[in-house]
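Design request, tokens follow.
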């Protein structure tokens, strides 16, 4: 197997990934601030997140093809150029339209970088060291979004929202320089045939589903809105046509043969359930802390920091444990911890102490760190090397879809729960009753997340360690 400067390669990819994920969530805290500055409604401001997710949902399915058409360095440079230009425009943005353009450019950068990161790890690390390497990716994927709201809260309080992007810019430039110096071309460029119909179907399919669910979560009209129903139905039809076309093509854009590997499917289910649990609880918890318990954005961000930081710190350790013992001894106990924590969360009240909520959030994040990367690495390990780009494309694309679904379901459970509580209240406009309604609705969301966890736990009993085919690995290098 060829020797690579894995440390330098990982450093450049992780710095850029961290900054990209950081700015994705940092902006969420600034939404109410931006509504005042730009005089826009919540539904319009929501597009800063929806547009980002939508771009990822459209771009991710094509990454399997792009990884075979362009060299590692070419994709890395385009991804970073897009991120840097997007971040610079965002830092200078003086109206909503400019900021929206910046978000799309940032999303293109991230949409190329994340699959590139996974694929590079699968190629440059031997299977017995992959868990630890994937753990560092876990650190980025979990720790960056966690620090985003806290740091953004500080910047907004003392400077302005522009500084979220000014802070990111030097790190992106640093990542670019390290990558230009050390990143090597690790994949083979095979230039398979480009099928335009597949690209159109995938764009309509994944784009329609992500857009439909994101719209449903916005709350105006919700699930019954004609736009939501039409987007999801058209998206689903396009996805079925896309899947059928991929099955019968000689050189598919997204190779669905990855679904012939049972551990890949189990790993995929674990990752999707984690994504739904994280997004549904991470959206509701800050809202509950701010609107239910009346804490400031900065205080809410600080409360969520210990759990998320610990998740980031533990990810590489979990990766090493996975390399040593395999997935079963991490994934099953991890899901038990998550299920128990969510059960406690579904009983929180306004009398619950801050210490209890911080402790529960820490348990939730520790549980997730035991599940996510081990399940994902184990699943990808079962694929033959020629399917790595397709396996990472499938996982990353469906994560975006699961994220959009989890968010939408959480927001609609929250809205319906609050409405139901206030209908039965004698003084629905009283602040105390509003806080009680928020508590009642949040308990329902945590119960929903617990149901998702129990389904994940049932599937987890089928997980077993994958023995990697050494001959196939050797043939590749």
């Amino acid at each position: 197997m060829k020797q690579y400067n894995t440390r330098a390669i990982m450093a450049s990819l992780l710095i850029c990934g961290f900054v990209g994920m950081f700015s994705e969530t940092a902006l969420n805290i600034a939404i109410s601030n931006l509504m005042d500055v730009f005089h826009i409604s919540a539904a319009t401001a929501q597009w800063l997140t929806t547009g980002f997710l939508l771009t990822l949902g459209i771009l991710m399915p094509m990454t399997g093809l792009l990884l075979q058409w362009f060299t590692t360095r070419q994709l890395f440079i385009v991804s970073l150029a897009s991120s840097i230009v997007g971040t610079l425009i965002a830092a200078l943005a003086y109206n909503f339209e400019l900021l929206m353009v910046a978000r799309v450019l940032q999303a293109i950068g991230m949409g190329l970088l994340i699959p590139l990161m996974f694929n590079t790890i699968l190629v440059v690390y031997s299977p017995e060291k992959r868990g630890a390497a994937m753990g560092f990716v876990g650190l980025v994927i979990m720790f960056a979004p966690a620090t985003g709201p806290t740091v953004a809260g500080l910047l907004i309080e003392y400077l302005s929202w522009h500084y979220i992007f000014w802070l990111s810019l030097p790190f992106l430039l640093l990542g670019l320089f390290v990558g230009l110096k050390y990143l090597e071309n690790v994949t083979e460029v095979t230039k398979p045939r480009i099928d335009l119909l597949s690209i159109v179907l995938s764009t309509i399919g994944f784009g329609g589903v992500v857009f439909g669910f994101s719209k449903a979560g916005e709350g105006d009209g919700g699930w019954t809105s004609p736009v939501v129903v039409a987007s999801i139905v058209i998206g689903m039809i396009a996805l079925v046509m896309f899947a059928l076309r991929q099955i019968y093509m000689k050189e598919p854009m997204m190779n669905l043969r990855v679904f012939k590997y049972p551990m890949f499917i189990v790993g995929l289910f674990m990752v999707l359930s984690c994504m739904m649990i994280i997004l549904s609880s991470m959206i509701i918890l800050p809202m509950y802390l701010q609107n239910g318990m009346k804490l400031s954005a900065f205080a809410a961000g600080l409360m969520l920091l210990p759990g998320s930081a610990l998740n980031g710190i533990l990810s590489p350790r979990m990766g090493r444990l996975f390399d040593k013992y395999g997935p079963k001894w991490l994934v099953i106990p991890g899901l038990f911890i998550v299920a128990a924590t969510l059960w406690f969360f579904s009983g929180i009240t306004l009398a619950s102490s801050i210490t209890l909520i911080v402790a529960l959030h820490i348990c939730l994040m520790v549980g997730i760190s035991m599940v996510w990367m081990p399940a994902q690495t184990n699943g990808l390990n079962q694929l033959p090397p020629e399917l790595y780009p397709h396996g990472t494309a499938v996982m990353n694309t469906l994560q975006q879809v699961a994220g959009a679904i989890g968010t939408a379901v959480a927001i609609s459970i929250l809205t319906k729960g609050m409405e139901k509580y206030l209908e039965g209240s004698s003084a629905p406009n009283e602040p105390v009753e509003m806080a009680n309604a928020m508590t009642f609705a949040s308990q329902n969301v945590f119960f929903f997340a617990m149901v998702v966890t129990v389904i994940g736990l049932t599937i987890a009993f089928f997980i077993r360690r994958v023995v990697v085919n050494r001959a196939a690995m050797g043939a590749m290098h």
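Comment from the thread starter after seeing the answer: thanks! The chain is about 80% helix and 0% strand.
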